[in-house]
Amino acid sequence: MTFFILRWIASGHAPVSNLFEFTTFFGMSLVGAFIVIYFMYKTPLLGLFTLPVAALIIAYGSMFPREVTPLIPALQSYWLHIHVTTTAIGQAILAISFVAGLIYLVKSVDQTKKTKSTLWLEIVLFGLISTLGFVLVSSFFAATDYSAKFNYINKDGQLL
């Protein structure tokens, strides 16, 4: 938190104007949201998933340029402080809620019997794993600069 306050003082604006600052703030928001929710509900299992993700996000943010630069004219508004910070905090709370919901589903459904609840839990988890898998595979193909041509021949026999 001290980093965030000192960077705000040094730059003269909310430190959420570039990718390094935003990802760092988002990681700090995740940790802050976890701390608040932990003191409310006493669920340490939530930290098992949240804190490593926050550490990875902050580590990812450290790969971007860290220089303090003046704001571009489009960002020189009080809305930067309001909009971007509340958006990052909202995303952090939503991420914590997502993890809490998954933990609740896995803990509350009796998986020893085949019921409708078990089926829906499997569908939700399959959808989650499929979505994450598609993101990872497409990111891999994008990183390796893979491209494939798709040739479509219409009814007239012309190649489009």
TrEMBL record:
It is found in: Membrane. It comes from the Bacteria. GO terms for cellular component: plasma membrane. Keywords: Cytochrome c-type biogenesis, Membrane, Transmembrane, Transmembrane helix. The chain crosses the membrane at residues 20-39, 46-64, 84-106, 118-142. The keyword Transmembrane helix applies. One of its GO terms (biological process) is cytochrome complex assembly. GO terms for molecular function: heme binding. It is a multi-pass membrane protein. This is Cytochrome c-type biogenesis protein CcsA/ResC.
